[in-house]
Model the fold of this input.
Amino acid sequence: MVRANEEVEALLQEYADLIAISGGDAFKARAYEKAARAIGGHPVDVTRLDVPGLRKIPHVGASIAEKVVEYLHTGRVAVIEETRAEVPAGVRELIAIPTLGPKKAMVLHEELGITSVDQLLAAVHAERLRDLKGFGERTEENILHGIALLQKAGDGRILISAAMDVAEQITGELSGIAGCERCTYAGSLRRMRETIGDVDVLVAAERSAPFMTALTELPYTAEVIAHGAKKTSIRTTKGLQVDLRVLPPASWGAGLQYFTGSKGHNIRTRAIAVRNGLKLSEYGLFDAESGESVASETEEAVYARLGLPWIPPPLREDRGEVAAGLRGDLPELVAEGDVRGDLHTHTDLTDGLSSLADMVAAAAARGYAYYAVTDHAPDLAMQRMTEAKVLAQRDEVRALDRKHRGMRLLHGTELNIGPDGDVDWPDAFLAEFDLCVASVHSHFNQSRQALTRRLIRACENPRIAIIGHPTTRLIGKRPGIDADFDAVFAACARTGTALEINAHPERLDLRDEDILRAKRHGVKFAVNSDAHATTHLPYLRYGVGTAQRGWLTKDDVINTWPLTRLRRFLRGGRRP
Ligand code: DGT
Ligand code: CA
Ligand code: CA
Ligand code: ZN
Done:
């Protein structure tokens, strides 16, 4: 992830929205949107590029490249500031509602004079939206839902990927300071939760002052919330809070255990301590009577003294891990290094940003033993896929496959599960793919019964090996579809269809709780990046973290399997 690229992406996306909302040229808005995405996914830091360099990025023409350079040099783009000024702030706020596009926001502004979220709420309640063209009861429901999501997203939690970027930079900086014996992040980030409230960084050192001061002086520190000898808290320019605690090296293990949490897990471990005549705090494990320290230097020692094996942080959610540990029954969790290949990825043949050759080279560099290319199928009309195009791609894939000795390429597709559970292309055509992923990309608002039947029909299709991003949720933006997932999980188990754990940090779909439930039904899983650019392949780590939170082992995850076993699953003893 290149930070500057993300900033430019957000800026250009905002400009696209502003153009659309101020009634500007729709074609121009779309052009900025495409450029925004291309820059966001570009592997080279844009701050290192000049206008000709920028123009080599797909969808970036001269005028966009010049605006990017203007922004990188001056921190602003004159024409974007002007457009911003033309659109009332309240209307700009409307675009932020996840279920309301700029077009509808513009209609609301022009027809009803709405200039704030509060006015919009009032208008919905007064049923003033119903008479507008293109609005209906459904739209009202969606808008109310979108406003609720917006306010929920205002709870200040951020995506794990954004928190991880900050945490890795800070631990990198602090590790370089003299006297640093250890440095890592703890809290929800170490547990790999899907969203993060604040980042907790720990340092083991004799003297705390140099670390505390360094944190307050980082270039992206916008505000110092508290500055002390034990704890310092700052807020970054993006509004993320970071808590730094410096521990005496002898207390490292106890401190790491305490500040990793979760609170529920810590309550369990403290209760075990008490039962054993001990007292557990962030400073160590002590004999309750003599006050003497019995363990503190490493987490392993602390857990061992409590009669527990070391418990991997993603399990520390008070979901039975302590009891399982006491029984010697903890799962041997799948690890990122176990994953042998990615089974859901895109190229620029559809909506990806990188070429097939670049994606394949990036996959090979990750040391994969196999890699599937699964571009979108034609029912997603925007992608303009055709039989001819996908067959031409297959030839390219087969040719590249001969060049990559260590890595086998699989040619697949990501099908669209239609409203009735049908998918793109006739069965005979599907039979020629090495692998079919199938996902819901439309008609999210069907009845629970219809959605359930639709997913089950997809499971029952012998050509479909994996259901992609099963609930379709987008964290902070769109809730998952309302299906009876227990029935879907049972169908997956019965038909030998794997469920995806989509590793994109905005999806993480299935999520941890659903994984636990699906596993109880006997379902297998595939942890996939759904990469649309070479820079997205490393997102896999968040999918693996989520799989770990769902207690999965290697055997549960089909893309840790050797290729022969995987192929057997894909073709299926189960399939006719
Ligand atoms: P977050 O920041 O909301 O994503 O979640 P956490 O788990 O990182 O929570 P945070 O930052 O408030 O605290 C980090 C860890 O420190 C937490 O998981 C457990 C521990 N901790 C903090 N405050 C307390 C407390 O009052 N009691 C207990 N038992 N543990 C605490
Ligand atoms: Ca935290
Ligand atoms: Ca904290
Ligand atoms: Zn996809």
About this structure: The mean pLDDT is 93. The two ends are 43 Å apart (CA to CA). The chain has four domains: 4-153, 158-247, 252-327, 336-573.
